[in-house]
Design goal:
single chain, 72 residues, alpha+beta, two-stranded antiparallel sheet, 3 helices, elongated
Amino acid sequence: MPQEIREAMGALPRQRLVWEARNDGSAVVRPMPSVMELAGSLKSEVPFTNILEETEAATDAWVTESLKLNRR
């Protein structure tokens, strides 16, 4: 797709596009939203933390499980 069109629609470099075919033969093209743009779009009872806290929690869980396996 030409760069001028991608810029006009606000698409970032290497951003995927969503194509919607219409019954009249036309098509609508939109930039696919990023994961960060979708953040908060679903309701959850679990409080959101930041990526650093998530990484630390995952690392701690991995270490704990690794230690359990090594004790067997």
